[in-house]
């Protein structure tokens, strides 16, 4: 079945998602099944993985992030192909990758995780160039993933800037 661009595609059943390893991963272990803002709930679901690996050595955190991104090209593309819908809203593995990228730049502290989450959601929703290019022009797993990779990098860079400004304000106070 060819992939289609459908505005409000039908959410697959829990049985479909949990019965297929590709869908299970693509739907963020079920976090993308939310009927309300699956991208946001998927991003929240990604925090479980983040908190599990946040104290790993930097090289290990980055290696896991690279694996999540690289695997995502296949996972998201295959899930979309099986569903016949390009970038189904329930496919949130890309949000998981974007969140890990964003939080790789986060200063220590829960406040920065929250700020990173909010920044990632803003950049993922607004899709500033080149994220919008990937989202609109690439119709496979690469397009599904790359807009979130870009959103994650933008949010990460914003975290670095905000973290630096905050540190400067604290030092001056």
From TrEMBL:
Enzymatic class: hydrolase
SUPFAM superfamilies membership: YutG-like
Cited Pfam families: PgpA (PF04608)
Keywords: Cell inner membrane, Cell membrane, Hydrolase, Lipid degradation, Lipid metabolism, Magnesium, Membrane, Metal-binding, Phospholipid degradation, Phospholipid metabolism, Transmembrane, Transmembrane helix
InterPro entries found in the cross-reference section: PgpA (IPR026037), PgpA-like_sf (IPR036681), YutG/PgpA (IPR007686)
Places the protein is found: Cell inner membrane
Bilayer topology term: Multi-pass membrane protein
Protein's UniProt name: Phosphatidylglycerophosphatase A
Source organism (scientific name): Thioalkalivibrio versutus
Lineage: Bacteria, Pseudomonadati, Pseudomonadota, Gammaproteobacteria, Chromatiales
């Amino acid at each position: 079945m060819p992939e289609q661009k459908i505005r409000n595609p039908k959410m697959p059943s829990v049985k479909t998602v949990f019965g297929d390893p590709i869908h299970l991963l693509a739907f963020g272990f079920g976090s993308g099944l939310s009927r309300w803002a699956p991208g946001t709930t998927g991003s929240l679901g990604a925090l479980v993985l983040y908190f599990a690996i946040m104290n790993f050595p930097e090289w290990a955190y980055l290696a896991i992030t690279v694996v999540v991104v690289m695997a995502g090209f296949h996972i998201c593309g295959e899930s979309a192909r099986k569903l016949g819908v390009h970038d189904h809203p329930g496919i949130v593995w890309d949000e998981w990758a974007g969140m890990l990228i964003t939080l790789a730049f986060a200063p220590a502290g829960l406040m920065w995780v929250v700020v990173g989450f909010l920044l990632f959601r803003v950049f993922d929703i607004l899709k500033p160039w080149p994220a919008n290019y990937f989202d609109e022009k690439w119709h496979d797993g690469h397009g599904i993933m790359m807009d979130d990779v870009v959103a994650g990098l933008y949010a990460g860079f914003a975290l670095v800037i905000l973290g630096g400004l905050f540190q400067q304000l604290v030092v001056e106070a």
